[in-house]
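User: Sequence in, structure out. Go.
Assistant: Echoing your sequence, followed by the structure tokens.
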Amino acid sequence: MSRVCDVSEVPNESLKKFTVDGKEICVGKHNGKLFACENMCPHRFASMDKGWFDGDNVVCHIHYFQFSIDTGKLEKIDEKWKEQSAAWKKSDDLTMYDVEVKDDEIFLEPRRKII
């Protein structure tokens, strides 16, 4: 596991960008729960740390694609894009990290994808 930061650096209802092992990671806290994902929207590569929360989803600030903070799965595409082609709307899920807190420090490990 890789150390990221102190727990106090990620306030509730926030998204923060960190560089861990050469990768940009978005660490967020929503309703008191920490989560982490690559800091890149898999749709069009926007920075996820510039987004916001909608329920238990993190929303990309560019096209408003919503991803689950638990699984990283694409949950919702904003209605304003309904006329776009299927190819344009295609998106992978977020790449997620397992989060562990030890002695008030946040540690991450890449989550294994289940095929």
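User: And one key feature?
Assistant: The chain is about 5% helix and 45% strand.
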